[in-house]
Amino acid sequence: MTINNATAVAASERSQRIYQCLFRPQSIAVVGASTAPLKPGGRVFNLIHQHGYAGTLWPINPKATELHGVPVIPSIAALPSAPDLALIAIPSHMVLDAVTELAEMGTGAVIVLTSGFGEKDAAGKELENKMKEVADKAGMALIGPNCSGFLTTTYKGKFAGIVPQLPGGDVDFISGSGATVDYVMECAEARGLSFGTVINLGNSAQLGVEDLLKIYDENYNEDCAKILMIYMEAVKKPALLLQHARSLGKKGCVMIGIKSGATEAGSRAAASHTGAMATSDTAVEALFEKAGIIRVAGRGALIDVGCVVKAVKGRLSGKRVCIVTDAGGPGVMLADELNRAKMELPALSEKTLEELAKILPAESSIINPIDALPSRTDKQIEAIIRVLGELEADNLDAIAFLTGDSGLSDNAAIYQAISDAAPKSPIPILPMLSSLTSCGEKIDTFIRQGNVFFPDEVGMATAVGKVAGYFEPVEVTDRPAGYDQTAIQEALTGVEGALDPAIVKQVLLSAGFVLPEQIEVFEKEQLAAQCQRIGFPLVMKVIGPLHKTDVGGVRLGIANEEDALKTWTELMAINEATGVLLQPMVTGQEVILGASLEGEFGHLVMFGLGGIYAEVLKDVRFALAPLAPVEARRMIDGIRCRPLLDGVRGEPGMNVDILSDFLVRLGHLVADFPEIAEIDLNPVKGTGDRLYVVDSRIIMKK
Q1: Whole-model pTM?
Q2: 510, pLDDT greater than 90
Q3: Who's near 74: CB < 8 A, 6+ residues apart?
Q4: Which of 576, 670, 577, 686 is nearest to 624 (CA)?
Q5: Which domains does the chain have, with CATH numbers?
């Protein structure tokens, strides 16, 4: 066995050991267990005991002999053997000694519930660091401190908030916030989502969300949920998050995530346009998209999207929705919201309309949206769903069913009709049940049959749009033809800072980009001859200053030698000017491509229309390098002004296939050469099958 293989085997065994001890422990010690229901140690012990934990349970308390009939161990030292898992709920000044003692005896994992550490002051942070050192040295997993605990299908080791009651385990949850976990569970259960494993990491002294995601992925099995929610306040290990989120997606697990702190105030100096336009949250957004995580802004949206994913059993096949409602107003509002979410309401076939006309009264609207009127009956609802399933399965991706308490029929029968029809329907059904007060008990019965529901049309439509817009992660293929990595390496060896235009040209040509002819002129006496080589009209650009346009260093439409000589004098008067670059005039639409290094995230590739579209209107898209062709095309299609690329008012368009190829090449360039700090290709310009990098700059790390 090679060293690398041995290391991989050891890492796999450690992952399995941590998973077993945290998620499926055979023995649990509760340090600080008591009968006090409002103290962490008392509540967590009571929950583990009362919810039928089948393993060995050791309460540790020097002042008691038994708790709920379970013999109490007076101290950690008195334990008969090392537990798989220990939960610690004792005063903060005693925790380090307890962690040390448990580590020395071979405990597999420790969850520290106690607060008063890094979240409090510097002294508390120092204690956290010491706990981490002890755990790392012993190979013991450490969760917390300052966390509310774990819930798994094996044990209920959590002291705050609710313990889920709905069976099924639709959702697993990894969170850096205990309050977020508690809120989401309580509200989500009322909507029909059940929970299996719920993890709160507290201060994450040793293991953070990314680390737990790795362990979860490496041990993912049939007991794990098909939906995984995550809540993060910081992304500390983006590569780890990307790797294991993508892996889980391939296993059929849909991830929904919140990363808070998206509007952190601040600014930074950046030499490139790309770096200046990327905000602190841009890299996170790009990371989630590349990882295949559906990102939402808040807890309510997390629940809404979770309900959609459960109802459609994973992913929507497309964006086509049929609305069935018993009131016109809500149906119209939902149609508006679905339109805002970029969903479609397709027309129904003539055959479908004929069948619906047989089911509903003449005054009903049978187009999409279908208005079944307040007088609707359970038999009518069953028939509508059956007809749509039989005749529109290839035309629809979801049925949104809206119903309130009309007072004209028993809503329990309506809900039951939906519940009975949903499992048999080839088209997923999304129920919006608005009568939460008058029909609360009936809705409760509905969700206990395994269903979810939505209380309002805005949340439903937004969530449906999120799920429909979800893209499965794609693999980056081989580098495109004409990409010469060796030549690029030679050009970039030993350079730093802003590169000379000649080196930039060499790099871009070696990467397969197309540049217009260009000539550098450093002596005025050479200008006339070189202008004749390029041909008039031409472009003159100052060499030296980084941002040429900002200092008036780009002059277009130079018509003759006299203009060229005059422009030479003006350009050479610019501070830091060393020469002039000559290029032929290139016509056509302008776009900007660029990339900037965003710390541990890697390079962020940017695309947008040129000029004010990018800098003022911020009509740009970002993605993490490297890019697959489908990701590049998604960036192009994602800008608001996308139709301009096809040409408007008689103007020629731009070849988006070549543009996509340029983005792919740029992604490989910065991924292969992380020493590139920033790069701008601005503008990229052309029409038809001709596309040129008209101006560019590359800045290397120093």
Answers
A1: 0.90
A2: yes
A3: 60, 61, 62
A4: 670
A5: 1-146 (3.40.50.720), 161-262+297-314 (3.40.50.261), 316-468 (3.40.50.261)
